[in-house]
Amino acid sequence: MSRPENRFDDDDYPAYTMGRAAEMIGSTPAFLRALGEARLIEPLRSAGGHRRYSRYQLRLASRARELVDEGTPIEAACRIIILEDQLEEALRINEELRASDGHPQGSEPPAP
After folding, report:
1. In what order do the strands lie in the sheet with 51-53?
2. Is residue 106 part of a domain?
C-alpha cells in the first residue's frame, strides 16, 4: 500500500472536491458535471458520495474550458481532448519503441 505522502505525486489520486476543482480551473460545478455527462472525466466518489477529482482530470477539464471559451461546443471539445490524449499516448509508445530499436523492452529482435 502506498504511503499517504506518495499520493501528492500521484496524478490520478482524487484529491480535489468539486468546489475546489471548479475554482482551480475557473469554472463552475455545473461545468464539471457537464464534462462528466459528456464522459470526458468520471470523478471518483467519496464514501459520502461526493465527487473527487484528480490532477489529471483537472488538466483535461482545464483544456475543455479553454476550448469552450473559444466557442467550441462542449461535446466537440470533449472529443478533441480525447483525440489529443490518444495521440499523446500513441506518440509516447512510438518513442519508447524507437528507443528500444523497435522492439518491446526485454525482447530480442528476430534472427535473420
Report:
1. 16-17, 51-53, 44-45
2. no
The tens place of each residue's pLDDT in the chain, 112 residues long, gives 456 556 667 788 888 999 999 999 999 999 999 999 999 999 999 889 899 999 999 999 999 999 999 999 999 999 999 999 999 999 999 999 999 875 655 555 555 5
Structural domain range at position 82: 10-99
pTM of the predicted structure, to 2 decimals = 0.76
Residue entry with cell 471559451: 69
Nearest CA among 59, 77, 79 for reference residue 68: 77
CA distance from start to end of the chain: 46
